[in-house]
Amino acid sequence: MRSKIVAANWKMNLTFGEAESLVDDILDRLDEQDELNCEVIICPPFPYLELLTDFEFDEQRFNVGAQNCSAFDMGAYTGEVSAKMLKSIDVDYCIVGHSERRKYFGESDETLAEKVNRLIENNMSPIFCVGEVLEEREAGRHFEVVKEQLEKGLFHLDGDAIYDTIIAYEPVWAIGTGKTATPEQAQEMHAYIRSLVKERYDQAAADDIRILYGGSCNAQNATELFSQPDVDGGLIGGASLKANDFVSICLQASQIGAE
Ligand code: PEP
Question: How many angstroms does the Cα of residue 217 sit away from the middle of ligand 1?
Answer without folding.
Answer: 7
